[in-house]
UniProtKB/TrEMBL annotation:
Residues 1-78 form the 2Fe-2S ferredoxin-type domain. GO terms for cellular component: membrane. It comes from uncultured Thiotrichaceae bacterium. It comes from the Bacteria. This is NADH-quinone oxidoreductase subunit G. GO terms for biological process: ATP synthesis coupled electron transport. Keywords: 4Fe-4S, Iron, Iron-sulfur, Metal-binding, Oxidoreductase, Repeat. PROSITE patterns: 2FE2S_FER_2, 4FE4S_FER_1, 4FE4S_FER_2, 4FE4S_HC3, COMPLEX1_75K_1. Residues 143-162, 187-216 form the 4Fe-4S ferredoxin-type domain. Gene3D superfamilies: 3.10.20.740, 3.30.70.20, 3.40.50.1780. Its cofactor is [4Fe-4S] cluster.
Amino acid sequence: MITLTVNARSVEVNDGSTLLDAAREAGVYIPTLCYYPRLPSHAVCRMCLVTIDGESRPQPACITMAKEGDVVETDSRELQEFRKTDAEWLLARHPNDCMRCEVNGFCKLQSFVSENQLEDCWEYVPRGSIEHPEHNLTDHTSPSIWRDLSKCIECGLCVEACGDQGQQQHVIGFAERGSGRLPVTVFDQSLADTTCISCGQCTLVCPVGALIETPHWHDVLHTLDGRRRLSAVQVAPATRIAISEEFGMKPGTVSTGRMINALRQLGFDYVFDTNFAADLTIMEEGTEFLTRLKKQEKLPLLTSCCPGWVNWVEINRPDLLSHLSTTKSPQQMHGALTKRGAFARALGPDFAEGKAEPYVVSVMPCTAKKD
C-alpha cells in the first residue's frame, strides 16, 4: 500500500494506482474529459493536471503513478484558471447546441462549463483549412449510431474502444495532426459502409455528443402522446437492472415493477417481458440443433440471438454463416408475435386480418438491436 496526501487529506491506495485513483479514494473531485477506467489513458485533455511537491510542472493525474509520501494539490488558483482556459478553447470550436443535444445533462464538457459558469471568450474556429478541407462531420447513415464530429473534443476514447484495447474492429482512427486531428472512418466512408458491427462501445465512452446511439425516443413519445394507435412495449431482462444504476441505486437492484409503472405512465397499453420470447427461442434453437445433429450437417450450431455477433460473423467470418442458427432473436420473435400472433388476433378483426397492427417498441440493452 502507498500513503500520500491529496489536498491535505491522507489516503492509502494500492501499488500501481494513479493520482486520479488516489484523489477519488480521498473523495476529491478532479474533472476529466479523456479518461475512461477500462481504456488506456493518454492525458489528452489536460483537465486533470495537479501539482506535486518537488515537481517543477503540473502532472496529469490520470497517468501519473502515486508514490509514497506524495503531497498533491488539485485545486490551486493556477490549476483552476488553466482548466477554465482549456475548456474555453474547446468551446471555441464546439457548437452551441446543448438544448437539442441527445446527451444534454450527461455531457462532461457541458457539466464543467455549467459548474464554472464559463462564457464564449474566443471567436469560433471552424475545422479544416483551404489546404485540408473539413472532413464529413455529420453522419446519420447507420441505423444504430449517429456521428456529429463538430462536437468532438479529440479525446481519442472512441478510437481506443474500437481498436486493440476494445472491440478490435478498427473502424474509427485518427486523421490529420494538430488542430485538424479528428477520429474518422477510413477514406471518410459513412459508418453504414464500414465494417462497424454496431456494438455501441464508442457511444458508451464518448464524453460529449459526438457519438450517440440513433435516437428513436422522440418518435415514440409523439406516437404515445397522440393515442391514435394501440401500443405495446417489450422489456429485456438486463434493462430492468441497468436502469437502477442510472437512478443511483445499488448495482444489481431489480426495478421490474418501477419500470412497468413508468412505461404505463408514459402511455403504453401493454407491457411484455422479452423472457417469454427467449423461452421460445431456446425451444426453436434446440429443435434446430437436434435436426442438424441427426443429419450431421452444419455443426457446430452458433447462436443468432445477438445482432452484434451476427454482424461480426457477416463481416469478419462469412465462412461461419452457415453455422448460425436460423432462429430469430428473442426481441425479433416477440415483435413478430405481438404484431401477427395470438395477441394481435385477440385485439379485434382488423388486427387479425392484418389491416392494423400494434405500435411495438423494444427496450433493449444493446445498440446493435437497432441494426
